[in-house]
Amino acid sequence: MSAKWYTNGKGNNVKVLVCDSYETLSKKAAGILAGIVNVKPNAVLGLATGSSPVGTYKELIKLCEAGLLDFSQVRTYNLDEYYPIDPENDQSYHYFMNVNLFDFVNIDKANVHVPDGNAPDMNKACEDYEAMLDEIGGVDIQVLGIGGNGHIGFNEPADVFVGPTHIVELTESTIQANSRFFEKIEDVPTKAISMGVGSIMKAKKILLVANGAGKAKAIADTLEGPITPQVPASILQLHHDVTIIIDEAAAAGLKEYHA
To answer: Is residue 255, in this structure, part of any structural domain at all?
Structure first.
């Protein structure tokens, strides 16, 4: 199990750890999250869905089962949710979090927060979620994945950065990418409620995990390219405390890393 640090040479506060495998990546990411919870038992965690953080959640479950981690006081806020979708639907992100983490750790489900994908008023649901984030003063650490097009949460490439929690019209590429989880592409929701980049940037710390060659261009654009809403994750260059943990395949596009 090996990993090495990389810097993008821009002098910002983004730290990048390149790991030799997805298992190493997952253990390193889980270690960071566990450290925060062990120091602050009532920590507020911002969580993400998608394939990249699944290994991290499995490692957190192992730590909890071993008695090395206690979720009893932890509060969580998830990045996003499809709209419209029922939380009991097996493709909802609420369901995803239950089966990949919450059902296997000693978290109080009353402390779990996921955007309401079944709300009768979408705009109010967004406003209420953003108000909760304001009330807690930002999560202690926000976990992120990254899309192949550089999206974080469901903040898709656009002409401007959108600040608060909002309704997103999903791009065709994201719908196609997510269709593997549904019986047919027509079943994939075309909208989502997502924290905006402003919501994400309120986090005290940010932890982004990514693996595989399909994420290499997005990672390179995020770290070595300009800050642009066409690559939503590039805004992370402006955050004061970001750790990105990736495998060698996801690091393949980094010019500085391979120089």
So the answer is: no
Active site residue 156: yes
Choose, from 59, 78, 80, 94, the residue flagged as catalytic.
80
Report yes or no: 136 and 101 within 8 Å, Cβ to Cβ: no
| Model confidence pLDDT, tens digit, residues 188-210 | 888 999 999 999 999 999 999 99
- Assign residue 52 the CATH number of its domain: 3.40.50.1360
Active site residue 8: no
Question: Domain containing 223: what range?
Answer: 13-250
**Which residue in the list 81, 156, 221, 247 is annotated as catalytic?**
156
Question: CA 234 → CA 166, 191, 239, distances in Å?
Answer: 19, 23, 10
Query: In angstroms, how far is the first alpha carbon of the chain from the final one?
Result: 23
Report if residue 71 sits inside a domain: yes
**Residues 154-200 pLDDT 10s:** 998 999 999 999 999 888 887 888 888 888 898 888 899 999 999 99
159 is catalytic: no
